[in-house]
């Protein structure tokens, strides 16, 4: 295998297991204190019964000492799941001024239907002030994207 072929293979392999997804703010007219740059999902598509990690790269101009992540998941437009996480369990607190990463890993049950989902995530501070609100779509597949390479 030539070096060029190896580079192309590695690119295709990695691009199928990690995906930077398109992110929208819940309110385009609102000036959020926390700006989200990108959401990466690993693996992509998500495989039920296996760990999935959502990594959110963000930026803030203010120190965040504590807070919550409020997550709502919809399937074909129907609300199916809500959960709340302590921000400090998902990133290092206090969150310093500048760039930071919020990462959450979870194993979806094996009976989770495959298809398109949408997720809405609000980040609130310790006083329940909304710092950001984003929404994005993701896919749950039938089999691992790695299976094609085995």
TrEMBL record:
Keyword Nucleus belongs to the record: no
An annotated Gene Ontology molecular function: sterol binding
InterPro entries hit by this protein: Ig_E-set (IPR014756), ML_dom (IPR003172), ML_PG-PI_TP (IPR033917), NPC2-like (IPR039670)
Residue ranges constituting the MD-2-related lipid-recognition domain according to the UniProt record: 23-138
SMART domains per the UniProt record, alphabetical: ML
Signal peptide interval: 1-20
Biological processes, Gene Ontology terms: intracellular sterol transport; sterol transport
Keywords from the UniProt entry: Signal
SUPFAM superfamilies the UniProt entry points to: E set domains
A Pfam family matched in the record: E1_DerP2_DerF2
Protein name according to UniProt: MD-2-related lipid-recognition domain-containing protein
Organism per entry: Brassica campestris
């Amino acid at each position: 295998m030539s070096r060029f072929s190896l580079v192309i293979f590695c690119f295709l392999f990695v691009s199928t297991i990690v995906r930077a997804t398109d992110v929208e703010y819940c309110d385009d007219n609102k000036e959020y204190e926390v700006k989200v740059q990108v959401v990466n999902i690993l693996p992509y598509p998500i495989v039920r019964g296996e760990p999935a990690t959502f990594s959110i790269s963000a930026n803030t101009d203010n120190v965040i000492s504590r807070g919550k992540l409020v997550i709502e998941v919809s399937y074909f437009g129907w609300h199916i799941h809500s959960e709340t996480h302590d921000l400090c369990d998902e990133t290092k607190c206090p969150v310093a001024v500048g760039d930071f990463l919020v990462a959450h890993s979870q194993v979806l049950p094996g009976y989770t239907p495959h298809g398109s989902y949408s997720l809405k995530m609000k980040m609130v501070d310790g006083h329940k002030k909304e710092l950001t609100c984003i929404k994005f779509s993701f896919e749950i597949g039938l089999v691992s994207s790695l299976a094609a390479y085995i």
